[in-house]
TrEMBL record, chains A, B:
Pfam families: AA_kinase, ACT_9. Belongs to the aspartokinase family. The lineage of its organism: Bacteria, Thermotogati, Synergistota, Synergistia, Synergistales. Residues 350-408 form the Aspartokinase ACT domain. This is Aspartokinase. Keywords: Amino-acid biosynthesis, ATP-binding, Kinase, Lysine biosynthesis, Nucleotide-binding, Transferase.
C-alpha cells in the first residue's frame, strides 16, 4: 500500500511503436502499466503509433498526392492520428484491468510547439490537466510525437519525437522517465555490428549525446538534451523482457569502476569531401565554412593540411547533405580557379566515447595502436574531451569497431 | 470572374465516406471542389471518414477490449481520427490542383459540443478561424462528425453526425449547404423498396423531418432541424454524377404544382406492443407513458381501445428499446393484476407524408382505399397534419408502399 502521508511516486513510461503493434501487445503493455498503478504509483504512459501505422499513413498520402511529403502541415495532421489511435486503445485495455485510464492528445496535454511542421520543437507543456487526471485516476495515456502550434495546428516532433515527448512531460512533472522498446538497453556498441557488445548499466547524458551524434541509433539526442538540462532520471529497457536495462545519469555512481571507453559508435551515413588546390588563406576557409553553415550543412572531421602555400581541406558531411556541398563551395570560391573537389562515399566514422577518458592517460595511444594492429586505414581523425573519432574506409568499419571494443574491454566475457 | 465589389459566395459542401473511400475518389472530389473555388466561390468542405475506416476502427477496438463499445469517451477519441485522415488527404489533393487548402479538425473549427460521448450535441461553433482561412485561401477542409467538449475532450455526434456538422457550419457562416453522397437526391420512397420511385426536386424541411423520423434513410433529422431553425439552404446530390439532386426548402416554390403526398416511408425497425386487461383509467395510462418516457423509450402509433370498463393499449417502439418495455410496465402497473403484454416483431410502419395534405381533401379516403384494394391488414393507424401512418404486417410493407406510391402518383411515368 502507498503511504498516504507521502506524495505518490509519479513516473512517465514511454512505449514505442513495436510495443503497441497489435491488440495482444497493447494488452501486454496494459498489464505492465496496471501492475505499477496498482502498487500505488501514478503513471503517465506516452505512446507512439502502432507498429507500421506511420508508414501506412505515409503510403496513403503518397497514393493521393505525388507531392505529399512537401505538404508538411497536412502530413502532420495526418500522422498525428496514429498516436491518438494507440492512446485510445491502450486506455481501453487499461480500463479492462480496472485502471480508470484516460487517453489524452496533444491539445489535452498542452504540448505547445513551434510551427516547424515535421520537426517542431517543444516550447512549453501545460501539465495542469495531466496532474488533475493523475490525481483523480492514477493513470493517463498521452500521445507522443505530436504537439500543437500557437495557432492550434497539429505538429510533429520529427525523428525520435515520442522519446522527446516523454522526457519533456517527465521534466514538466519533475519525475523519472522510462523508455521501453524492443531493445533491452543501451549497448557499448550496436549489437548488429558487435554481437557480443556489453550492455551498459549506466551511461552519462554526455556520453549518450556523443553516441547519438556519432551514429548510435539509441535515444535521440533531443530528448537526452532535455533530460540533461532538466535533470530527468532516464531509464531504457525492454517492453517485454524483465532484463535490467540502462540508467542514463548525470554522473556515474561513485562505486562503479569507470571504464575508460564507455561505447563505440559507427556511423556509415558519412561522406568524405576533399578540397584541393586552395591558396593558404584563413579568410578563405572561413568563407567556405560560412557558406556551408548558411545552408545548414553540418561538418565533422575537419582537417586542414597546407604545404608550400597550397592547402587541402577535408571534412565529412552526412550523406543527405552532399548535394548541397558543391553549390556552397562555388559560392565561397567564386573567382578562384585551380581548386578541385573530390567526394568519397565509401567511408565510415568510428568513435570511441567515454567520460573516463578525461581521467585516464594513454587513451589515444591505445586507440590508434589497436587500429594499427587491425590494419585499419585512418583517413582522418578528431578528438574531443570524451571522444576520439576516425574516418575509415567503409569496408573496414566493422573491424575497426571490433578492435576498439576488444582493446577497451567492451565485450561480454566468454 | 467574381465581381470584386460583391462579397464572394460561400458554400459548405459535405462529402460522405463513400465519396472519399480511396485515393482516386479523393482526387475526384478535389477536382469538383477546385472547379468551384476557381470560379470564385469560397468553399468549406466537410468530410466523413474514408469508406470503411469507421468499421475498421471499431473492429480494432473490439480486438483490444471486449468492452470497447462501453468506453464511449475512448471510442470517440479513436473514431475522431477517421475524419482527420480524410480531411488531411483531401487538403493535399486540393493543393495539387492549385488550391491553397487547409485541413481543420474539431479543435480548429471550434466545434463545441456537450460531453455526451458517442452522441454529443452541438452547443456552439466559433467560425472565426474558418472565416480567416477562407479569406486567405478560399478553401478549407473540415472534419465532420466530431466535436470538442468544454473540457477539451473529443466527442462524436452519433448517427448522421457529419451531415449535422456541415449544416451547423453552414448555419454559423450563414451560407448554403450541399450534401453529396452516392445517392443522387431524395426519392419519394427508398428505391430499394420502390425501384421506380420519383426523385424529388423539392422537399420541405417539415417533410424531410417526418420522412427521417418515419424510417427513411436520407438526411438525419438533427441536421434538418438545424437547417429549418437557422434557415440554411440545403441541397442533396450525387458526388460523381451531374444529375440534378434535391433542394430542401422552407416552402415549396409557388410555381410548383404541390403534390398531395410527397413521399412514402417504410420503417421495419418497429415492434408492436399490445397491453390487455387494464382497467379503464386515464391516470393509469399516464403512469404507463411516464414510466416509458423516463427510460427514453419513444412511443409511436399509440391507440387505446376500451370497452366494458376494460382497456387495451397498443403502441410501437423501435426494436432496440423493446427490452426496456416490460420493466417500465411492471413499474407503472405495480400492484395491478390481470394485465398481459404481447409483443409482435413482424410489423412495419408505412407512412405517407406531404405538406400538400393540408390543402387537399379526401386524402385519408384515398390512402385507406388504396391499402384495402391491395388487401393490406392495417394493425393500427395515426395521423398528423402532414402524415398518415399505418402499422402493417412486415410481409405486406412493400405492397402497402407500392399501393400508396401508385395512388399518389409518386412513381416515374413509364
Amino acid at each position: 500500500m502507498a503511504n498516504p502521508a507521502r506524495p505518490p511516486r509519479i513516473a512517465v513510461l514511454k512505449y514505442g511503436g513495436s510495443s503497441v503493434a497489435d491488440a495482444d501487445r497493447i494488452r501486454a503493455v496494459a498489464a505492465k502499466v496496471a501492475a505499477r498503478c496498482q502498487s500505488g504509483e501514478r503513471i503517465v504512459v506516452v505512446v507512439s503509433a502502432m507498429g507500421k501505422t506511420t508508414n501506412r499513413l505515409i503510403d496513403l498520402a503518397a497514393d493521393v498526392s505525388g507531392n505529399s511529403s512537401g505538404y508538411k502541415r497536412e502530413m502532420d495532421m495526418l500522422m498525428a492520428t496514429g498516436e491518438q489511435v494507440s492512446a485510445a486503445l491502450l486506455a481501453m485495455a487499461l480500463r479492462d484491468l480496472g485502471c480508470d485510464a484516460l487517453s489524452m492528445n496533444a491539445y489535452q496535454i498542452g504540448m505547445l510547439t513551434t510551427d516547424a511542421y515535421g520537426g517542431a520543437r517543444i516550447r512549453d507543456i501545460d501539465v495542469g490537466r495531466i496532474r488533475r487526471e493523475l490525481d483523480a485516476r492514477g493513470v493517463v495515456v498521452a500521445t507522443g510525437f505530436q504537439g500543437v502550434a500557437e495557432n492550434g495546428d497539429l505538429t510533429t516532433l520529427g525523428r525520435g519525437g515520442s522519446d522527446t515527448s516523454a522526457i519533456a512531460v517527465a521534466a514538466a512533472l519533475r519525475c523519472p522517465c522510462e523508455i521501453y522498446s524492443d531493445v533491452d538497453g543501451v549497448y557499448a556498441c550496436d549489437p548488429r555490428i558487435i554481437p557480443d557488445a556489453k550492455k551498459l548499466e549506466y551511461v552519462t547524458y554526455e556520453e549518450m549525446l556523443e553516441m547519438a551524434s556519432s551514429g548510435a541509433k539509441v535515444l535521440h539526442s533531443r530528448g537526452v538534451e532535455i533530460a540533461d538540462k532538466q535533470q530527468v532520471e532516464l531509464y531504457c529497457g525492454s517492453t517485454f523482457s524483465d532484463e535490467r536495462g540502462t540508467r542514463i545519469v548525470k554522473n556515474l555512481p561513485e562505486w562503479l569502476e569507470h571504464p575508460v571507453v564507455t561505447g563505440v559508435a559507427v556511423d556509415t551515413d558519412q561522406i568524405k569531401v576533399n578540397l584541393r588546390g586552395l591558396p593558404e588563406d584563413v579568410h578563405l576557409y572561413t568563407r567556405v565554412f560560412n557558406e556551408l553553415a548558411v545552408r545548414c550543412i553540418n561538418l565533422d572531421m575537419i582537417t586542414i593540411v597546407s604545404e608550400g602555400g597550397e592547402a587541402a581541406v577535408t571534412f565529412s558531411v552526412i550523406r543527405g547533405d552532399v548535394g548541397m556541398v558543391r553549390p556552397a563551395l562555388e559560392a565561397a570560391l567564386q573567382g578562384l580557379s585551380g581548386w578541385s573537389m573530390n567526394v568519397d562515399g565509401d567511408v565510415a566514422k568510428v568513435s570511441a566515447i567515454g567520460v573516463g577518458m578525461q581521467a585516464a592517460s594513454g587513451v589515444a595511444g591505445r586507440f590508434f595502436g589497436a587500429l594499427e594492429r587491425a590494419r585499419i586505414d585512418v583517413l582522418g581523425a578528431t578528438t574531443s574531451e570524451i571522444k576520439i573519432a576516425v574516418l575509415v574506409p567503409r569496408a573496414q568499419a566493422q573491424s575497426a569497431a571490433d578492435a576498439l571494443m576488444t582493446e577497451f574491454d567492451r565485450k561480454v566475457e566468454k
